[in-house]
Amino acid sequence: MKQLVTYPDPVLSKKAGRVVKFNSQLRELIKNMIETMDLEGGIGLAAPQIGVSKQVIVIKDSRETRALINPVLTWFSKELSPSKEGCLSCPDLWKTVMRHNSVTVQFQRIDGGKATCKFTDLESCCVQHEIDHLQGKTLYDYEDLTDIFEVKQEKPKSRFLY
Questions:
Q1: Which pLDDT tens digit goes with each residue over 112-138?
Q2: Structural domain range at position 27
Q3: pTM of the predicted protein model
Q4: Is 130 a catalytic residue?
């Protein structure tokens, strides 16, 4: 497990560098990211959140945990929905932000091969949130739309943090 980096650490506001070497160090980074995400109760994590300025994210759903290397949004739905989000790097901050209902992401797998995947609903919100981290953007950079959408529910008992 790696130590989480929290806001306002400068690595969180810096654009992450592309991964060019697909080797054992990358596999170790991904293993550490998954372990950290799981132990912290998250459903997504970007490498900058553990102090590594590389374009690597991990996300998990009910079926699997995936690593996306050098991810790029190649398509997004016109439909947007409010998403109540928390962030492992912004403790105690919850904001409602607008996210595309579905997105398509092109990325590289751990072996360097290219892949494309469509994400919908919660997975779509999660992957957009993590890609934000790779661009140096955090929840602090978003306006909180909670009052506009009247999403005034209590903080979830099981944390869905990205």
A1: 999 999 999 999 999 999 999 999 999
A2: 10-149
A3: 0.91
A4: yes
